[in-house]
Amino acid sequence: MTRKNKTTTMNGSERGPDGDPDCTEVLEDDSRSILMGIISQLGKGTDLHRVTLPTFVLEPRSMLERITDFMSHPELLLEATTLTDPLERFVKIVGFFLSGWHIKPKGVKKPYNPVLGEMFRSRWKYANGTEGIYIAEQVSHHPPISAYHYASPENGIMIQGNLRPKPKFLGNSAATLMEGSSTITLEGWDDEQYFITMPNVYARGILFGKMVMELGDNCSIKCPKNGFVCELNFKTKGFFSGQYNTVIGKIKNEKTGQVLKEISGAWTNELFISSPKSSSKKQSLFDVKNSNIHSMIVEQEQHQENHESRRLWSKVTDAIKQKDQDTATNEKMLLEDKQRLDAKERQKQGTSFQPQFFELNNITNEYILKNIIQSND
Protein backbone atom coordinates (compact mmCIF):
# COMPACT_ATOMS: atom_id res chain seq x y z
CA MET A 1 0.00 0.00 0.00
CA THR A 2 1.25 3.48 -0.83
CA ARG A 3 0.10 6.93 0.13
CA LYS A 4 0.19 10.08 -1.92
CA ASN A 5 2.18 13.00 -0.59
CA LYS A 6 1.14 14.88 1.59
CA THR A 7 0.75 12.25 4.34
CA THR A 8 0.21 11.66 8.02
CA THR A 9 2.10 9.10 10.05
CA MET A 10 0.36 6.30 11.93
CA ASN A 11 1.08 8.08 15.20
CA GLY A 12 -0.67 11.20 13.92
CA SER A 13 2.30 13.52 13.37
CA GLU A 14 2.11 15.46 10.13
CA ARG A 15 4.83 14.66 7.64
CA GLY A 16 4.20 16.77 4.60
CA PRO A 17 7.12 16.47 2.17
CA ASP A 18 6.48 19.98 0.92
CA GLY A 19 4.50 21.57 3.77
CA ASP A 20 6.41 24.70 4.66
CA PRO A 21 9.17 24.39 2.06
CA ASP A 22 11.75 26.03 4.33
CA CYS A 23 10.96 24.05 7.50
CA THR A 24 10.27 27.26 9.39
CA GLU A 25 8.43 28.16 12.57
CA VAL A 26 7.75 31.34 14.53
CA LEU A 27 7.56 30.64 18.26
CA GLU A 28 5.00 32.33 20.47
CA ASP A 29 6.46 34.73 23.04
CA ASP A 30 5.85 32.37 25.99
CA SER A 31 7.50 29.44 24.22
CA ARG A 32 10.51 31.48 23.17
CA SER A 33 10.91 32.80 26.73
CA ILE A 34 11.00 29.25 28.07
CA LEU A 35 13.56 28.25 25.45
CA MET A 36 15.70 31.31 26.12
CA GLY A 37 15.57 30.61 29.85
CA ILE A 38 17.06 27.16 29.26
CA ILE A 39 19.63 28.31 26.72
CA SER A 40 20.81 31.25 28.83
CA GLN A 41 22.30 28.73 31.25
CA LEU A 42 24.35 27.04 28.53
CA GLY A 43 27.73 27.78 27.08
CA LYS A 44 28.51 27.68 23.38
CA GLY A 45 29.35 24.13 22.33
CA THR A 46 27.38 22.55 25.21
CA ASP A 47 26.24 18.97 24.59
CA LEU A 48 22.45 19.29 24.46
CA HIS A 49 21.80 15.60 24.98
CA ARG A 50 21.95 16.12 28.75
CA VAL A 51 19.62 19.13 28.57
CA THR A 52 15.88 18.59 29.08
CA LEU A 53 14.17 20.41 26.22
CA PRO A 54 10.57 21.67 26.41
CA THR A 55 8.00 19.39 24.77
CA PHE A 56 6.83 22.02 22.29
CA VAL A 57 10.03 21.47 20.30
CA LEU A 58 9.41 17.72 20.06
CA GLU A 59 8.09 15.74 17.12
CA PRO A 60 5.74 13.11 18.61
CA ARG A 61 7.70 10.02 17.64
CA SER A 62 10.98 8.42 18.63
CA MET A 63 14.24 8.68 16.71
CA LEU A 64 14.06 4.89 16.34
CA GLU A 65 10.94 5.39 14.25
CA ARG A 66 12.32 8.45 12.47
CA ILE A 67 14.99 6.25 10.89
CA THR A 68 12.28 4.32 9.00
CA ASP A 69 11.71 7.40 6.80
CA PHE A 70 14.62 6.10 4.74
CA MET A 71 12.63 2.97 3.88
CA SER A 72 9.69 4.99 2.56
CA HIS A 73 10.60 4.64 -1.12
CA PRO A 74 11.53 0.96 -1.50
CA GLU A 75 10.99 0.93 -5.25
CA LEU A 76 14.40 2.58 -5.67
CA LEU A 77 16.13 -0.09 -3.62
CA LEU A 78 14.20 -2.96 -5.21
CA GLU A 79 15.05 -1.69 -8.67
CA ALA A 80 18.73 -1.47 -7.76
CA THR A 81 18.81 -5.24 -7.20
CA THR A 82 17.67 -5.84 -10.82
CA LEU A 83 20.26 -3.64 -12.56
CA THR A 84 23.24 -5.38 -14.12
CA ASP A 85 25.36 -2.26 -14.59
CA PRO A 86 27.32 -1.44 -11.40
CA LEU A 87 27.17 2.34 -11.98
CA GLU A 88 23.41 2.23 -12.52
CA ARG A 89 23.03 0.31 -9.26
CA PHE A 90 25.15 2.89 -7.48
CA VAL A 91 23.07 5.77 -8.86
CA LYS A 92 19.88 4.06 -7.67
CA ILE A 93 21.35 3.63 -4.16
CA VAL A 94 22.23 7.34 -4.10
CA GLY A 95 18.65 8.17 -5.06
CA PHE A 96 17.33 5.87 -2.36
CA PHE A 97 19.45 7.59 0.29
CA LEU A 98 18.37 11.07 -0.81
CA SER A 99 14.68 10.09 -0.91
CA GLY A 100 14.38 9.81 2.87
CA TRP A 101 15.06 13.41 3.86
CA HIS A 102 11.93 15.15 2.55
CA ILE A 103 9.69 13.50 5.17
CA LYS A 104 9.56 15.94 8.04
CA PRO A 105 7.22 17.36 10.67
CA LYS A 106 5.62 20.73 10.30
CA GLY A 107 7.86 23.43 11.75
CA VAL A 108 11.13 22.92 13.62
CA LYS A 109 10.84 19.77 15.70
CA LYS A 110 13.10 16.97 16.91
CA PRO A 111 12.09 13.37 17.65
CA TYR A 112 12.20 11.92 21.15
CA ASN A 113 15.60 10.83 22.44
CA PRO A 114 15.09 7.06 22.86
CA VAL A 115 15.55 5.71 26.37
CA LEU A 116 17.99 2.89 27.01
CA GLY A 117 16.53 -0.45 25.93
CA GLU A 118 13.74 1.16 23.91
CA MET A 119 12.90 -0.69 20.69
CA PHE A 120 10.85 -0.14 17.54
CA ARG A 121 9.63 -2.79 15.10
CA SER A 122 7.82 -2.50 11.78
CA ARG A 123 7.41 -4.17 8.41
CA TRP A 124 6.36 -3.38 4.86
CA LYS A 125 4.53 -5.41 2.22
CA TYR A 126 5.65 -4.86 -1.36
CA ALA A 127 3.82 -5.12 -4.67
CA ASN A 128 5.97 -8.06 -5.79
CA GLY A 129 4.65 -10.17 -2.91
CA THR A 130 7.75 -9.77 -0.74
CA GLU A 131 8.21 -7.83 2.49
CA GLY A 132 10.77 -5.88 4.48
CA ILE A 133 11.27 -5.99 8.24
CA TYR A 134 12.91 -3.46 10.55
CA ILE A 135 14.03 -3.47 14.15
CA ALA A 136 15.86 -0.78 16.11
CA GLU A 137 17.06 -0.58 19.69
CA GLN A 138 18.66 2.07 21.87
CA VAL A 139 21.80 0.21 22.86
CA SER A 140 23.57 3.02 24.74
CA HIS A 141 22.49 6.16 26.57
CA HIS A 142 25.85 7.83 27.34
CA PRO A 143 26.78 8.26 24.57
CA PRO A 144 23.44 7.81 22.79
CA ILE A 145 23.58 5.06 20.16
CA SER A 146 20.64 3.78 18.13
CA ALA A 147 21.27 0.45 16.35
CA TYR A 148 18.98 -0.59 13.52
CA HIS A 149 18.57 -3.44 11.06
CA TYR A 150 16.38 -3.74 7.95
CA ALA A 151 16.11 -6.88 5.87
CA SER A 152 14.17 -8.04 2.83
CA PRO A 153 15.52 -11.59 2.44
CA GLU A 154 13.49 -12.45 -0.66
CA ASN A 155 15.01 -9.44 -2.43
CA GLY A 156 18.51 -10.00 -1.04
CA ILE A 157 18.65 -6.63 0.74
CA MET A 158 20.04 -5.81 4.16
CA ILE A 159 20.61 -2.43 5.84
CA GLN A 160 22.34 -2.10 9.17
CA GLY A 161 23.63 0.92 10.97
CA ASN A 162 24.39 2.84 14.12
CA LEU A 163 23.29 6.43 14.68
CA ARG A 164 25.31 8.41 17.23
CA PRO A 165 23.78 11.93 17.28
CA LYS A 166 25.67 14.67 19.10
CA PRO A 167 23.51 17.78 19.68
CA LYS A 168 25.43 21.01 20.29
CA PHE A 169 24.43 24.55 21.24
CA LEU A 170 25.96 27.12 18.86
CA GLY A 171 24.57 30.46 20.03
CA ASN A 172 21.48 31.33 17.97
CA SER A 173 21.61 27.85 16.47
CA ALA A 174 21.65 24.24 17.61
CA ALA A 175 23.25 21.43 15.65
CA THR A 176 22.87 17.70 15.70
CA LEU A 177 26.06 16.12 14.40
CA MET A 178 24.86 12.88 12.80
CA GLU A 179 27.77 10.61 13.57
CA GLY A 180 27.62 6.92 12.72
CA SER A 181 26.99 5.17 9.43
CA SER A 182 24.75 2.78 7.51
CA THR A 183 25.67 -0.16 5.32
CA ILE A 184 23.45 -1.41 2.51
CA THR A 185 24.21 -4.93 1.33
CA LEU A 186 22.91 -6.34 -1.96
CA GLU A 187 23.30 -10.06 -1.40
CA GLY A 188 22.41 -10.97 -4.99
CA TRP A 189 25.49 -9.13 -6.25
CA ASP A 190 28.04 -11.09 -4.25
CA ASP A 191 27.26 -9.16 -1.04
CA GLU A 192 28.00 -5.82 -2.67
CA GLN A 193 28.15 -3.16 0.06
CA TYR A 194 27.48 0.58 0.19
CA PHE A 195 28.81 2.58 3.15
CA ILE A 196 26.85 5.74 3.95
CA THR A 197 27.41 8.69 6.27
CA MET A 198 24.89 11.41 7.16
CA PRO A 199 24.67 15.20 6.84
CA ASN A 200 24.23 17.27 9.99
CA VAL A 201 21.00 18.91 11.13
CA TYR A 202 20.79 22.58 12.14
CA ALA A 203 18.06 24.58 13.88
CA ARG A 204 18.62 28.29 13.26
CA GLY A 205 17.00 31.25 15.00
CA ILE A 206 16.34 29.61 18.35
CA LEU A 207 16.96 32.86 20.29
CA PHE A 208 15.66 35.46 17.86
CA GLY A 209 14.24 35.60 14.36
CA LYS A 210 12.44 32.88 12.44
CA MET A 211 13.33 29.33 13.40
CA VAL A 212 14.54 27.24 10.46
CA MET A 213 15.54 23.59 10.19
CA GLU A 214 18.31 22.81 7.69
CA LEU A 215 20.55 19.97 6.61
CA GLY A 216 24.18 20.93 6.14
CA ASP A 217 27.75 19.80 5.53
CA ASN A 218 29.18 16.83 3.68
CA CYS A 219 28.42 13.12 3.60
CA SER A 220 29.32 10.25 1.33
CA ILE A 221 28.27 6.94 -0.18
CA LYS A 222 31.00 4.46 -1.07
CA CYS A 223 31.03 1.10 -2.82
CA PRO A 224 34.58 -0.26 -2.44
CA LYS A 225 33.86 -3.35 -4.55
CA ASN A 226 33.10 -1.31 -7.68
CA GLY A 227 35.30 1.66 -6.81
CA PHE A 228 32.56 4.32 -6.75
CA VAL A 229 32.14 7.17 -4.31
CA CYS A 230 29.46 9.85 -4.14
CA GLU A 231 30.43 13.03 -2.32
CA LEU A 232 27.38 15.09 -1.32
CA ASN A 233 27.24 18.62 0.02
CA PHE A 234 24.02 19.74 1.70
CA LYS A 235 23.93 23.53 1.37
CA THR A 236 22.73 25.81 4.15
CA LYS A 237 21.27 29.17 3.19
CA GLY A 238 23.52 32.17 3.61
CA PHE A 239 22.38 35.25 5.53
CA PHE A 240 21.99 37.36 2.39
CA SER A 241 21.89 34.83 -0.43
CA GLY A 242 21.34 31.22 -1.37
CA GLN A 243 18.39 28.87 -1.16
CA TYR A 244 17.07 26.45 1.42
CA ASN A 245 17.25 22.66 1.13
CA THR A 246 19.67 22.31 -1.79
CA VAL A 247 22.24 19.60 -2.33
CA ILE A 248 25.00 19.11 -4.87
CA GLY A 249 27.23 16.11 -5.40
CA LYS A 250 29.53 14.15 -7.64
CA ILE A 251 29.86 10.45 -8.31
CA LYS A 252 33.48 9.58 -8.94
CA ASN A 253 35.79 6.72 -9.71
CA GLU A 254 37.50 6.62 -6.34
CA LYS A 255 40.86 5.45 -7.73
CA THR A 256 41.20 7.92 -10.61
CA GLY A 257 39.07 10.77 -9.32
CA GLN A 258 37.18 10.88 -12.63
CA VAL A 259 33.74 12.50 -12.25
CA LEU A 260 31.12 10.15 -13.68
CA LYS A 261 27.88 11.88 -12.66
CA GLU A 262 26.80 15.17 -11.11
CA ILE A 263 23.85 15.65 -8.74
CA SER A 264 21.90 18.81 -7.97
CA GLY A 265 18.52 19.96 -6.79
CA ALA A 266 16.38 20.33 -3.69
CA TRP A 267 15.92 17.38 -1.36
CA THR A 268 12.43 18.71 -0.51
CA ASN A 269 11.36 18.85 -4.15
CA GLU A 270 13.29 17.27 -7.03
CA LEU A 271 16.84 16.01 -7.49
CA PHE A 272 18.62 15.72 -10.82
CA ILE A 273 21.54 13.76 -12.21
CA SER A 274 23.65 14.48 -15.28
CA SER A 275 26.91 13.57 -16.97
CA PRO A 276 29.71 16.12 -16.40
CA LYS A 277 30.09 16.85 -20.14
CA SER A 278 26.36 17.40 -20.65
CA SER A 279 25.13 19.08 -17.46
CA SER A 280 22.37 20.78 -19.45
CA LYS A 281 20.79 17.37 -20.10
CA LYS A 282 19.63 16.63 -16.58
CA GLN A 283 17.52 13.64 -15.69
CA SER A 284 15.29 13.32 -12.66
CA LEU A 285 16.92 11.26 -9.92
CA PHE A 286 14.05 11.59 -7.45
CA ASP A 287 10.89 13.70 -7.57
CA VAL A 288 9.00 14.16 -4.30
CA LYS A 289 5.72 15.21 -5.92
CA ASN A 290 5.59 12.18 -8.21
CA SER A 291 6.60 9.65 -5.58
CA ASN A 292 4.52 7.75 -3.05
CA ILE A 293 5.36 7.09 0.56
CA HIS A 294 5.10 3.37 1.21
CA SER A 295 3.05 2.63 4.32
CA MET A 296 4.66 0.60 7.07
CA ILE A 297 2.85 -1.82 9.34
CA VAL A 298 3.25 -1.42 13.10
CA GLU A 299 1.65 -3.57 15.79
CA GLN A 300 -1.15 -1.83 17.68
CA GLU A 301 0.08 -0.22 20.88
CA GLN A 302 -1.96 -2.47 23.17
CA HIS A 303 -0.15 -5.48 21.72
CA GLN A 304 3.33 -3.99 21.95
CA GLU A 305 5.82 -4.65 24.70
CA ASN A 306 6.16 -1.96 27.35
CA HIS A 307 9.50 -0.75 25.98
CA GLU A 308 8.38 -0.44 22.35
CA SER A 309 8.53 3.16 21.21
CA ARG A 310 4.90 3.98 20.49
CA ARG A 311 3.61 2.34 23.65
CA LEU A 312 6.44 3.71 25.79
CA TRP A 313 5.87 7.31 24.65
CA SER A 314 2.09 7.08 24.14
CA LYS A 315 1.11 9.40 26.99
CA VAL A 316 3.63 12.03 25.89
CA THR A 317 2.49 11.70 22.29
CA ASP A 318 -1.19 12.02 23.19
CA ALA A 319 -0.53 15.14 25.25
CA ILE A 320 1.54 16.80 22.50
CA LYS A 321 -1.18 16.08 19.94
CA GLN A 322 -3.71 17.65 22.30
CA LYS A 323 -1.37 20.64 22.81
CA ASP A 324 -1.27 19.89 26.53
CA GLN A 325 2.37 20.75 27.14
CA ASP A 326 2.15 20.49 30.94
CA THR A 327 0.98 16.88 30.80
CA ALA A 328 3.50 16.09 28.06
CA THR A 329 6.31 17.49 30.21
CA ASN A 330 5.20 15.55 33.29
CA GLU A 331 4.90 12.26 31.40
CA LYS A 332 8.29 12.81 29.77
CA MET A 333 9.86 13.46 33.18
CA LEU A 334 8.38 10.20 34.52
CA LEU A 335 10.11 8.26 31.72
CA GLU A 336 13.40 10.04 32.34
CA ASP A 337 13.17 9.50 36.12
CA LYS A 338 12.57 5.78 35.60
CA GLN A 339 15.61 5.59 33.36
CA ARG A 340 17.75 7.18 36.10
CA LEU A 341 16.35 4.78 38.72
CA ASP A 342 17.09 1.80 36.47
CA ALA A 343 20.67 3.03 36.03
CA LYS A 344 21.11 3.38 39.81
CA GLU A 345 19.74 -0.12 40.35
CA ARG A 346 22.19 -1.61 37.84
CA GLN A 347 25.03 0.26 39.53
CA LYS A 348 23.91 -1.03 42.93
CA GLN A 349 23.82 -4.63 41.66
CA GLY A 350 27.12 -4.28 39.81
CA THR A 351 25.58 -5.11 36.45
CA SER A 352 25.57 -3.35 33.09
CA PHE A 353 22.86 -2.94 30.48
CA GLN A 354 22.79 -5.64 27.79
CA PRO A 355 20.89 -4.97 24.56
CA GLN A 356 18.17 -7.44 23.73
CA PHE A 357 18.61 -7.64 19.96
CA PHE A 358 22.05 -6.23 19.15
CA GLU A 359 25.62 -6.92 20.18
CA LEU A 360 28.91 -5.12 19.72
CA ASN A 361 31.15 -6.32 16.94
CA ASN A 362 34.60 -5.77 18.47
CA ILE A 363 36.21 -5.68 15.01
CA THR A 364 34.15 -2.79 13.64
CA ASN A 365 33.06 -1.29 16.99
CA GLU A 366 29.50 -1.26 15.63
CA TYR A 367 26.37 -2.82 17.09
CA ILE A 368 24.82 -5.39 14.77
CA LEU A 369 21.89 -7.75 15.06
CA LYS A 370 22.72 -10.76 17.20
CA ASN A 371 23.72 -14.05 15.56
CA ILE A 372 24.99 -12.47 12.34
CA ILE A 373 28.59 -11.70 13.38
CA GLN A 374 30.76 -13.69 11.02
CA SER A 375 34.25 -14.89 11.83
CA ASN A 376 37.13 -13.73 9.65
CA ASP A 377 39.06 -16.88 10.42
Automatic annotation (TrEMBL):
This is Oxysterol-binding protein. Gene3D superfamilies: 1.10.287.2720, 2.40.160.120, 3.30.70.3490. Belongs to the OSBP family. GO terms for cellular component: cortical endoplasmic reticulum; cytosol; membrane. Residues 1-23 are annotated as: Disordered. It comes from Circinella minor. GO terms for molecular function: sterol binding.
